Amino acid sequence: MTDGVTHTPETVVRWHDALAISEVLSDVPVRVDVAGTPVIVIRTPQGDVRAFGAECPHKGAPLEKGAVCDGRLACPWHKAEFSLNDGCLIEPLSFDPLPVYPVEISDGRVLISPHPEQQRRAPSSRENERAIIIGGGAAGTAAAVSLREFGFAGTITLIDDDGASPYDRTALSKTVLAGKAKNGKPPGLRPDNWWSIHAIRRIRDKVAALDVGTKRITLADGTGMDADHVLIAPGSTAKRPAIPGVEKDGVFTVRHAKDAEAINSRIETGASRAVVCGGSFIAMETAASLTMRGLDVTVVAPMDVPFAHVFGERAARRLMTLHEEKGVVLRTGRRVTAITGDIRAEGVELDDGTHISADFVIMGTGVTPATDFVADLRAPDGGIDVDERLQIAPGVYVAGDAARFPHGSSMVRIEHWRTAEVQGRQVARSIMNQSGMNQSGMNGSGVFDQLPWFWTQQFDAKLEYVGYQEEFDHADFNGDAETFDFTVTLTQQGRWVGTVTAGRPKVTGELVLHGPPEKAV
Q1: Locate the Rieske domain: which residues (predicted)?
Q2: Tens of pLDDT, residues 260-291
């Protein structure tokens, strides 16, 4: 490696000879080391060579393994999208852009400065406007962060009755209950001091009522607040089925950080046997985490093969077998009819008369949107119908679990973390009147049109899904189920409805960037 020094009026930039230009192919990221800093180099179809930080700001994923399409790069782990023009964030899960490093081409070599360029800030505007966000989860946090990123200089108030600073809820069942989280807590979505630094007011309270016409919010303590822009993003509450004993001590749900804290406390005081009720993602991820922690875990699920209706029979059976291989006892096709024990849960009774002893019980039986404060707007499933811009009225938006948005001839509601964050960012764009950003999943009119993606981590297996979780009549399996290296294409009467992958992140990444196959170019 050779170094050169270029003197400019403002600074001294040391150039590092990174690689030959011939090694940089169009739309294929190449990872290099620049003075100890990992950098990816990529050539655009127009021939421009650019250099960015090689690790996703979200969780550190290696971006050279990401998917590239139409000037965008998708993180291989959680599908954050970045612009290959300037490294800016297009879609979450990251909330930060990529560092951009100056590049020069000399004598067929790519020279890169180890000093990243200064990030540009959007000009401030809307100084006299008020935005109120109901809910501090994925959608609410994404909206608040994006508003400041886009230059919104008015007041932002985030209302949430969860006492913790907004955190990564997906970590609860995946890492916190497995005992792998730092300090036993889920990571924050932003550093604790970020909120005060960016002048975002956080109120710990519940919203009692919202007048959509006037945008007036009434808190549970009677306080009234007025806004110019309102985002309804309250998330969901965990369901507790109406079975005898469900309110006993030792019956938990996994929805909030305090839930995981209570379960961990029970384990630390000697609990070693758990029954997990339900075949949901939360239920099965929790079962895997507790098993990895050394507990004896029994899952009681009403369906014969959990996830067969989502992943297809073959992929779902392999995941089911993995649980059995790791020691999980599966009682599928069964339902819990009662929680036993005098005061504290001591086990469960099943619909076939079987009794299973346990030190605690976890209900992983689904969620319902927390929209009681706008009961007149609720659909039967608890969601709220919105238009293609996620609006229910001028200046009033809904995002996340509560949003029922148009898809084809029906209204759909997606309970996925990334979709919630993407929708929150979309609302921020709408408030700032940003449109014509086709590469960010919007059409020229600012319509929400991002293909949903989610993932589940169970033991050492990660499965990804792209689609709207529609019904399918055929699952085309390609790959090796045993090693979790496969693609499943789901169709309904020949129409693509979803793709499932294991060990093939680029397949799902390209779909997220391209859109559904019928739209792909």
Answers
A1: 16-112
A2: 999 999 999 999 999 999 999 999 999 999 99
